[in-house]
Specification:
CATH architecture of the largest domain in chain A: 3-Layer(aba) Sandwich
Number of strands of chain A: 16
Helix content of chain A: 25-40%
CATH topology of the largest domain in chain A: CV3147-like fold
Largest sheet of chain A: 9 strands, mixed
Strand content of chain A: 25-35%
Order of helices and strands of chain A: EHHEEHHEHEHEEHEHEHHEEEEEEEHH
Number of domains of chain A: 2
Shape of chain A: globular
Low-confidence stretches of chain A: none
Oligomer: homodimer
Structural class of chain A: alpha+beta
């Protein structure tokens, strides 16, 4: 167990927002709420997943919906905690710990918010190693673990239990429509996992990774070094493009935030243009019309000076941005993994070729 | 208790299909399944609601969705029974009886199908006294009884428990979207009711009414009398129009069957034209452009010769039809009732004026 300090929370916000690859939701409001809980005396411990008993019962929580809406319709820790309580009532059993659905963005904070109220430790792992828009894009789906049951709660206290789903694709469809009815945002407790499942089918130690990224960016800023260089050095990332946002088109549709970003090149990219398609997260990046990068590589758009991540819901015309690719967890790059999270899973007729593939460039 | 015989089933199909007012779904396939269950030795008893103990627990079941789809995607008694079993597991209590969500059409048979498998008596009442497309159009909604919990099951065994809803309108929205995901048809067990609630907030003895209508039509056919005359005489109905269907436009949208019917007048209506708008059920009827009849009056379209009801999903170009109005149960005509089931509840800027209002004509 490691105690998470209030200073850690700031690093976590910075790091998780970068790992969100544009999605997961801006963590700012959840960071504020988390700090308020800390000031009220609540504390959350971070637990090594490898210390879980095989038969431990782990809750897996996250917000679902369109990141733009999550900014507009604030929720709070009680709503998230209620999804866990509802699941406990359904199972007739208490949880031993709580884990992240996705380490990216605001969703990194959801288990900490619920954990603070429910007095449960948060497990140092997640089911994506980044953020993705759909339920069938998790390591649990890739490993073919059961998709049900889920609980879903909205701020009005509408409450739904998805007791059984044929597969992850059906669970995604059912929950996405329900989420859209709620106004494109809902708190969810996904299918409970055993300690054994968590240890064998999640992305391990990703909270520690987010904390480390946040600390590296903070350190670089303090020393007046380039925080993006620090990120790239730490994570083995690659700088893809530098420029100014010339257009941002987005629409909230079917429970997602979908859209398109255009960036005019600056500095070494002057005269070039990059475009990015997104569905909550940045999915496909093209430079001068040629595909340069696709999911599951993490496509991170960052403020060129501060190194702060910019999400698909916060990106604006005129921002000076740097586009960075970070390597995806290996499980996402497996043949089965790419079926769930490769470009074709998002409807693109493209084979995946990683920016980090030795044959690339 | 009254034993329902195999001959009763035929009368029930005829009568319920008329009371469906175009909706509730054609009962033909459920009638066949019910007869198959009877031939396999199953029997269902009909129970007087007034014999229910105040604290008896009553399940309330029905298919939800677009009638056209219900014809295309057959389901069976097991799926409906599973909604009841799922509710029992959630409540931790067994049901004492089962009742009809709506007496109209195929939905009249659903509690009999489930009751045959679960060995539960069917209560002689329903929550609409006809068929209506939405959950917030029931006597239970009009009486402001709780809308939750609901269970919903599809043929693939996706299973959802709607544990809590702010109100009937939210329950309708949530369940309708889920139903649309399932392909616009789903089996549901609605909010359980106490015996006291059933006795005070449902339409009583409507199964007996459907049986009586079916018997009257059967008798008239046997005696070569006009079955529509027999219906009108028995139920205090009114013949509104006779003609030939000149156009039927329908689309399955948002979990409903919506559309429009045009009828060219024949006989006493020669030279006139009637149009009917429908949302699962016939909602507004106009003759030569002037509104003649609206819900909650029952607008029944029937084969002019056989007196067989015709549903919004089965009506076709060229059919010789007679449009009949039947009086609605008094609770639907109350001020509160009309808020739920009057023309404005369907989006029409019309005040309700009953065909049976003494001031009419």
């Amino acid at each position: 167990m490691r105690a998470i300090t209030e200073a850690d929370l700031d690093d976590l916000a910075t790091g998780s927002w970068i790992l969100g690859a544009g999605g997961g939701g801006q963590p700012y409001y959840s960071l504020l709420e988390m700090k308020a809980l800390y000031r009220a005396g609540r504390r959350v411990a971070l637990m090594d997943p490898l210390a879980l008993a095989d038969d431990a019962l782990v809750a897996c929580v996250g917000q679902m919906g369109a990141p733009l809406v999550i900014q507009e319709k604030l929720t709070d820790a009680n709503v998230m905690a209620e999804t866990v309580r509802m699941m406990e009532r359904h199972l007739g059993r208490r949880f031993d710990a709580i884990m992240l659905w996705e380490v990216g963005g605001n969703n990194c904070f959801q288990p900490f918010l619920a954990g603070a109220l429910l007095d449960l430790p948060v497990v140092d792992c997640d089911a994506m190693g980044r953020a993705f828009p759909q339920a069938d894009m998790t390591t649990f789906a890739i490993c073919d673990l059961p998709a049900h049951p889920w609980t879903m709660v909205d701020i009005r206290r509408n409450r739904i239990l998805f007791a059984e789903a044929v597969d992850w694709s059906w669970m995604e469809r059912m929950t996405r429509r329900a989420c859209a009815v709620f106004g494109s945002v809902a708190a969810t407790c996904k299918a409970p996992r055993s300690g054994r499942e968590v240890k064998t089918a999640s992305c391990l130690h990703t909270v520690t990774k987010a904390l480390g990224i946040g600390a590296a960016v903070r350190e670089a800023r303090r020393a007046h070094r380039d925080p993006i260089d620090a990120l790239i050095a730490r994570e083995g990332g690659r700088r893809l493009f530098r420029g100014k946002v010339s257009d941002a088109m987005r629409r909230t549709t079917e429970g997602f935030l979908r859209g398109h970003l255009a960036i005019d090149g600056l500095d070494e990219n002057r005269g070039q243009a990059m475009t990015l398609d997104f569905q909550n997260e940045f999915i496909v990046g093209r430079i001068d019309g040629a595909v340069r990068v696709t999911a599951p590589d993490l496509i991170c758009v960052m403020d060129s000076v501060s190194g702060e991540a910019i999400g698909t819901e916060t990106v604006r015309y005129g921002q000076r941005v740097t586009v960075v690719a970070l390597p995806a967890p290996p499980i996402l790059l497996s043949e089965k993994g790419l079926k769930h999270v490769g470009p074709r899973a998002f409807g693109y007729d493209l084979d995946f070729r990683s920016v980090f593939d030795a044959r690339a460039d």
